[in-house]
Specification:
The chain has two domains: 146 residues, no CATH class; 294 residues, 6 Propeller (Neuraminidase), CATH 2.120.10. It has nine helices and 27 strands. Helix 2 packs across helix 3. By secondary structure, the protein is an alpha+beta fold. The strands form seven sheets. Strands 22, 23, 24, 25 and 26 form a five-stranded antiparallel beta sheet that branches.
Amino acid sequence: MFTQVSVWACVCLMSNSYKEENQLDFEAHYLMNLPSNNNQLDVEEKHAMSKKIEKQVVDPKEEEKSKNEEEDMQNNAIFPVHSIDNRNGKRYAIMVSDSNLLSEHLGRDISIHCLLRLSRSDYGSIAALNKSFRSLIRSGELYKLRRKAGIVEHWVYFSCEAFKWEAFDPNRNRWIHLPRMTCDQWFMMSDRESLAVGTELLVFGKELTAPIIHKYSLLTNTWSVGKMMNTPRCLFGSASLGEIAILAGGCDPCGNILSSAELYNADTGNWETLPNMNKERKMCSSVFMDGKFYVLGGIAADKKTQLTCGEEFDMKTKKWREIPNMFPVRTGVFETPPSFGSPPLIAVVKNVLYAADYGQQKVKKYDTHNNSWAIIGSFPEQATSMNGWGLAFRSCGDHLLFLGGPVIHGGSMMEINSWIPDEGQPQWNRLAGKQTGGFVHNCTVMGC
């Protein structure tokens, strides 16, 4: 990681257009209090930093510049999600600089090298200081460079209420409200799936006339309509790996259960048809593990049989391999029709597959060599569901997460519980909680 002075220098070079003294004072205070493993700067050094910032402020009173700044502010200078609270509790959006200091002083390459290692939680605020850096974010170039450098931060995206999506940043322990999704009531009543890939959140569903994909972009903080896949479907299994994702199985608009699969590339926005699986299946679940794509469980083409086999897709050979008895029927599900239970709750951490058995309220670990499962512990106390529905079980970096919560005094509590898998039993840590809809309709994790 870079030192406090390195981060300060990089950011300071981009911040030359504050209009108000209190904004300047706040940013100087913020920069001088960035966390660091090194010793804190003394009072005299902090005072010197503040003076340097003041020297870089450009008076924007010239008539031509004022017009340009006003137009720029109207178009795209503000990042709503990342507006800042000053010390008086008032919120403001930082003005964008016309300068190109990202490529001056330190040089473009060194500046970017420093910026890659900042938390993406700070990107919105810093992008509002400088056009060059804002352009890096909106073009997606910065996130591509982070991906190549192996720098990834994971945020959890979920929906507990109609039209409303939120994100949780476990690094800063904060909740983030996404813009409201614009869709009709038919979409909210349809079977919906969600998937995070690259810097996009895809939400699949059906409106009155046809299937549709609503796409949220982290780069612009906006929703748009995404490009439809080659074979529209719902109730499919899906997983992502960097900028690509694979969808397999599901139902077409006529209710036919599918064996087809498709690959989506977030960088190009295109869909590629893959070879068919060995079996048709819907309500299945998928993961990436050791660079291969797996599909587990689901309901067979006869719409009655619950499949216990899994399938493995080799990304290099483009071939499927069936794995018998990879996901045995859950305990207690024979008493109800298979379609009443949720798809398998599975997640992968460090290339190890885990499953949440909602029938037994147990967490299981998969042994790839013996093709078997072993119980390693129990659910968090507050993790409740309706036959698996309303509860999310996800991997988030090195953590396993449960999202959901009980109904308390007529209201619902959302809780996020986390555990870093090791050789012992799960010791669940409550990361956060809030009073909101506790029934999780959709959940996905974006790593970028």
